[in-house]
Amino acid sequence: MTNNEQLFRKKAAEGYLVCFNNDCPLHDQCLRCDIGQYAPSGNMIISVVNPHHAHATDGKCTLFTLNQKVKMPVGMKLHFYEDMPARVAKRIKQRLIEHKCRSTYYQYHNGTRPIPSAMLSFIEQVCREEGWQGPLVFDGEVEDYDW
Known about the structure:
By secondary structure, this protein is mainly alpha-helical. The chain folds into 2 domains: 3-56, no CATH class; 70-144.
């Protein structure tokens, strides 16, 4: 069994939203469809994209996730807040914690969880709204699926 197969089985078992819509034009590129193949047969109930929803068949699915690894930033511990004024950094941190939760924020902050594209966009938006126009400097970068 490959590393991807093990990872997909784990995600399916954890309840990751899967898709079984073989008629979708995005089916061959969709991570949710790939993981659906590994849905545990022992589970009576799993979370599935509704195949009858209008966007599930027209190629405009808002739940589509590309089945290729992408580069994502990790860690906000070393340099992220370094050049920001303390009052701005404090407001940004507070808003990020309120948006997700304290434990998820610290997983991003400490670099134990990659920052997916949707969260990265939110972080950029919050920084700009709070007055920080400088660069956002993360601790590093990893290649992973954009869960």
